[in-house]
Amino acid sequence: MPDLLSIVAPFLNALIIALIARKALGVPVGWPRSIAMGLFTGASIVWAVIYVSELTGIYVDGRANAPLGVIFAVATLITAWVIVLGLIALVLLELFIPTGTLPSPLALLRGWNARRKRARRYTQVIRIAAKHGLSGYLGGRRKAREGQSAIARSLRAALNEGGVTFVKLGQMLSTRRDLIPEVFADQLATLQTRAGPEPWPQIEQAIEEELGRPLGEVFRSVDPDPLASASVAQVHAAELLDGTPVVLKVQRPGARKQVTSDVEIIIRLARWLERATPWGRSLRVTRLAEGFAASLHEELDYTVELDNLRTIAATMDGGVSVPTAHDLHSTGRLLVMDRLEGTPVGDAGALLAALPAATRTDLAERLLGEVLRQLVRTGVFHADLHPGNILITPDGGLGLLDFGSVGRLDQPTRNALGMLLLAIDNNDAIVATDSLIEMLDRPDGLVERDLERDLGQLMVRYRVGFGRGGSSGMFAALFKLIHAYGFAVPPQIAGAFRALAALDGTLALVSPDLDVVGAVRRQGREMMREATEPQAVRADLESRLAAYLPLLQRLPRRINKLTEDLEQGRISINIRPLADDRDRSFLTGLVHQVVIAILAATATLGAIVLMVADAGPTVAPGVRLFALVGSALLLVGFVLALRSLALVFHRR
C-alpha cells in the first residue's frame, strides 16, 4: 500500500497544481502541459524549500532556527514562487505553441497510421516538385529568371504527375485568369484526367456493393469494356431487366480515399504557402484551396450530381437533351442514367464536316442560347462545357453529359449579367460599368470613370465582330480588364466565366465561322426583351406590390402618429451604444485587462519598496518582516501579470 501511495501521490499533487495553474491564468490551458508542469513543480518544491531555508538560516544542520509560523510562511511562499515559475513556463508555451496547435497524445496514437501515410505522400509531392524544378519557388527563395513560360510548363507536368486531385486543381486554376497569369492558365487548361480502365472484377464488385445485391437482379447485361475511363470514375453501357438501355457511372475503388488524402495535403500546403510566400498571401491560396476542396467533394458525391441532373432537366426548354436518372439504383458512388445516343463534339470532326455550314451555325447558336438562358434566366448552369460533355445526337440535336459541376447564380447576379449583355448590344459603357460593379466585388480605390472609359473603348473595338478571333479576343480582353482593375471575382461568377471559356472552345469545333459576339448580342437582346415585355413587367410589379401591400396599408396611420408626436413634442431619440452583447463583452474584457495590469504594477512596485527597505522587525535570523511581506506582494503582482498576458495570448 505505501508503494502504491508513493506512486499515486505525485500525480495527485500534479493534478492539484494543474488545477491551481489553470484557475490562476484564467484561460483553458491544455491539460497535458498543465499536468507536466505540475509534475515538474511538485518535484521541485521540496528541493526549493530546503535550499532557501538553509540559505536564509532558518533551517540549519537539520534543525529549525525560527518559530514554526515563520517556517510555515516561508515554505508557503517558496511553494507559491515555484508554482509561479511553472506559470511562467505555461505562458511562454502559450505564446509560442498555443493550446491546440499540437495534437493530443491520444490523437497522436490514434492517427499514427494516417499521419505516416500522409508524410509519405508529402514526400512524394515534394519529390515531384523538386524533379520539375519547382521546390525553390514553393519557399519563395527563387525568382522567375527563366521566364514564366518555362515555369508554367514545369507546373503543368508536376500537377499531371501528382495524380487526379492535382490535375483537377490545375484545371480549376486555369479558369481563374483573374488570379494567375495567362501563360499559366493556358498551360493548365491542357491538363487531362483520362486514365486506363480499372479491371472489370473490381468494378463489378464496386457496383454490387453500391446496389447491395448481385448485378443480375438489376441489369440484364453490363458491358465490361467501359465507354469512357477517367481517373475518378468510368462509364459502362448496360441494360435494365426491362430492356431499357442505360449507362453506369461508377466511382473507382479507392478514388475517394486518395482524393480526400490529397485534398488535406493541398489545404496544408496552401496554409504554409500563405504564411511563407508573398504570392501565396496575395492570392489568398488557403481560401482557393478550401473552395476547391468543397467543389471536389461534391463531385465525388453522385447524389449531388443526381440532384444537379434533375435541376438542369427541369429548366431545359427542349432545345438540348439531358439523360434521365434512375434514382432507385443510384447511390453516392454509382449513377444510373438512360443512355443518350450521340457522338461527343471532341470526336465528331467527321460528322460535323459532313453537315452544311448553316446547320453547324444553327447547332452552335442553339447551344449558346441554352447556356445563356441558364445563366441569365434560370440561374442553374452546366459549369463544365468541354467538348467531351456535349453530344451531337443522331437526329442532329444536342445533348449534355456529366453534371458533377453545376453552378448557381442568384437573381441580382442574373439581372446584372443580363444588363451587361444588353449594354454590350447597345454599346452603353455606363450601364456595362454599373453591371460589372454589381456582379463583382468592388475593389478599394476604384475610379469608375476610368473603368467606364476603358469598357467603352473595348466595346467600340469589338462592336462589329471579327469572326472567331474577334469573339475570343473580346472575352479575353474583358477578363484582362477585370483583373487589371483589381476586381475580386466571387466563386459563382468564376464558375460562370469558366463555363463560358469552355463553351468558347466547344463552339469553335461545332462552327468555326460563328461570331460569338454577334450571337451573344442577339441572344441577350431577345432574353432581355422577354424580361421587359409589358406582361413580364406587370407580373413583376404585381408580385412586388403584393409584398409591399401590408406596409402601404399601415403607412397613413404611421405617418399620422409621427406628425402628432412631432407636434406635441413626444419624439425622442434613444441611443444605446453598448446594446450589443459583443460590445459589452469587449469593453468588459478591456476594463478587466486594465484593472489587472494596474493591480499587477501596484503590487510589484509596493513589493520592491518593501523588499529594499532596511527598517522593520526581524522574524528570523536574516529574515525581515517587510522583506517577507514584499515577497508575498511580488508574488501577487507576478500572478496578476501572468494572468493578463495569458488572456492577451488566448484572445489572439
TrEMBL record:
The chain crosses the membrane at residues 36-56, 68-89, 590-613, 625-649. The keyword Calcium does not apply. Pfam families: ABC1. One of its GO terms (molecular function) is protein kinase activity. Residues 204-652 form the Protein kinase domain. SUPFAM superfamilies: Protein kinase-like (PK-like). InterPro entries: ABC1_dom, Kinase-like_dom_sf, Prot_kinase_dom, UbiB_kinase. The keyword Transmembrane helix applies. Keywords: Membrane, Transmembrane, Transmembrane helix, Ubiquinone. PANTHER family: CHAPERONE-ACTIVITY OF BC1 COMPLEX CABC1 -RELATED (PTHR10566), PROTEIN ACTIVITY OF BC1 COMPLEX KINASE 7, CHLOROPLASTIC (PTHR10566:SF113). Belongs to the protein kinase superfamily. ADCK protein kinase family. This is Ubiquinone biosynthesis protein UbiB. It comes from Acrocarpospora pleiomorpha. The gene is ubiB.
